[in-house]
Amino acid sequence: MHSFSPPSRRSFGLRLLSGDTPGHPVASFLMAVLVFVLAFAPLLFAGTRAVATAARVAIFVVLAASYDLLLGYTGIVSFAHTLFFGLGAYGVAIALAGSGPSWSALFVGSAAGIGFAALLGIGIALLSLRVRAIFFSMITLAVASVGQVLASQLHDITGGEDGLTFSVPPLLSPSFHPFTEPVLGVRIDGRLNTYYLIFVVSLVLFLLLLRLVNSPFGRVLRAIRENEFRAEALGYRVVVYRSLASAIAAAMAAIAGTLMALLLRYNGPATTLSFSIMIDILLMVVIGGMGTLYGPAIGAALMVLAQYYLEPALQFLAELTAPFPLLSAVFQPDRWLLWLGFLFMLVVMYFPAGIVGSLRARGLYSQTR
Amino acid sequence: MGDRIFASAKSEKARSGLAASAERNAPALLATDGLSIRFGGHAAVDGVSCRFPPGTLTAIVGPNGAGKTTYFNLISGQLRASSGEVWLNGERITHLPPSARARRGIGRAFQLTNLFPNLSVLENVRLAIQARSKPGFSLLRLADDATEILEQAFAVLGRVHLENRANIAAAALSHGDQRKLEVAILLAMQPRIFMFDEPTAGMSVDEVPVLLDLIEAIKAERQHTILLVEHKMDVVRRLADRIVVLHQGRLVAEGDPASVVNLPIVREAYLGRSALS
Lengths: 369, 277
Ligand SMILES: Nc1ncnc2c1ncn2[C@@H]1O[C@H](COP(=O)(O)OP(=O)(O)OP(=O)(O)O)[C@@H](O)[C@H]1O
Ligand SMILES: [Mg+2]
Fold this sequence. Notes:
The complex is a heterodimer. Chain A has helices at 12-16, 25-44, 48-74, 81-99, 103-130, 133-153, 155-158, 190-213, 216-234, 238-264, 269-272, 275-288, 294-320, 325-330, 336-350, 355-362; strands at 164-165, 266-267. Chain A has 16 helices and two strands. The longest helix of chain A is centred in the first third of the chain and has 28 residues, at 103-130. Chain A is mostly helical. Chain B folds into two domains: 1-105 and 195-215 and 227-277, Rossmann fold (3-Layer(aba) Sandwich); 114-190, no CATH class. Chain B is an alpha/beta fold. Chain B is globular and about 55 Å long. Chain B contains ten helices and ten strands. Mean pLDDT of chain B is 83; it is low at 1-27. Chain B has helices at 9-16, 68-76, 98-103, 121-132, 147-159, 175-189, 208-220, 233-239, 257-260, 264-276; strands at 30-39, 42-52, 57-61, 83-88, 91-92, 106-109, 193-197, 225-229, 242-247, 250-255. Helices cover 36% and strands 22% of the residues of chain B. In chain B, α4 crosses α5 (147-159), α4 packs parallel to α6 (175-189) and α5 packs across α6 (175-189). The chains are: A mainly alpha, B alpha/beta. Bound molecules: adenosine-5'-triphosphate and magnesium ion.
């Protein structure tokens, strides 16, 4: 009857996941594949492009999962998440472009970006006290636009529309080659270091988020999502919880931004602040399954892969079907966005609660623990 | 907790500030003083002064729209008074938010069931326990590690006979079971003031006794102040130490059950009502 297993009986692995599993064999399998591929990407893929894609997946896992903390767990509909992403990236970019590729500049720039993002997150959450949900969402949209405008107008600081290109500390720089020969078949270089920095930070943040949502704090967030009025009547200061959730989500998005800046050694409005990224994040969370964390991770992987490989895949199919002009036209690579839309529709039709959410519901896994 | 009830010098001072109605010796745990709220021009609660002595059960009766629920909302903080005061242990709590009042021991079960619909029955109760327990605010501990909270939650569910439904979503419960869960959440809060707003409304006949026994058991502890809004006169007679009658937002009568139920204004109000139902 009791759905909980006493802590002593939980394995180390389960504790690492904070007792929260994907909840369905298929979801677990997808997560296992994702973690495996990300963990060994530099060994599995020869090309730098593939490894960069893997890094991008890891970054978007954090971005989408941190957004899920807001949207799926706390029920806050904010469109300002890219602003925090951008703050982290600009923190690193401005510091490194300004004072050269030192670790201290990287540290100060990241800390400033992350700290500012967290404060802004609290500020935005406090706004939600004053206005109703729909107006709150619109205000976040306005705040995000202001961020974009500032980034492109403050040319001297941000590099404007062109953005900032900068060098990273030597250890992370592509020109870093401690060994002339590959070690155990792997070229040790700055790119590899950067990749594993991104991977490890992302993994730790994801596990931290899992822990958060399964902590007493996380339980209260879900209570607020379900019935804010009753949560308050039980004695929870809803504002405090909302603000803290917002600050944490903002800080995590900012960390994802710092990782993005390190990966690209560049940052500009289009790479971290654009609304199309905000929409991508929303889709990742909704497609994967709101309020599951694993869902957004899987959603992030699928979205990034689709963006990178749908076009070449269509190209391949179009060539394959060349003898049949009509069919070939359907697979015209320029139509990849159309195909993406079609895939979304399929997912929404067959997985109304998102991939992980719907799988859990089918597996009779009670999402209501 | 009990030591906080009548303790501080501050509360002594504040209590002496209470209106002239404070001569009675028994200190009131909860009191309202000229409490009013207006919606537009309409006073839904109009100058209600009342004291709720500790260890007693006060039934609040009155016809539909009399302002009973609104009065409750003013006490537990969901609505802010237009004028007048709410006092708890001599502390003026009129302007505190509901969460602060809940932490001071005001617990409320709502007339319209007010649960966390997609969370499990167990989780609904656990949240109420967590709200008052020390490790309540923790970001990195696992909620499921707090086994003592889980045990307490199951104990509370046992009291309303919902322990077998612990793992289903609150929204999936029958109406009667949802009413029981509403009360279970209140029990789990372990408040000093219990506020029940028509707890038996919409329950099937065989479910009602469980609930009444429960309220009676809380009352028998004589530790708590209980406010009960109830339309059924037999329930009121069985449970109430005292009856307060609200009518059009005003307190029109109060006293022991035997005398109050025979007052013309009460008979009028309730005859009108029973003629309808
Ligand atoms: N938020 C509000 N805005 C405007 N009017 C309100 C509001 N809340 C209550 N009222 C009005 O105040 C009056 C008292 O309502 P209330 O719900 O307190 O009555 P009640 O005694 O609890 O009735 P019932 O027995 O039907 O539960 C009603 O006329 C109601 O329409
Ligand atoms: Mg009412």
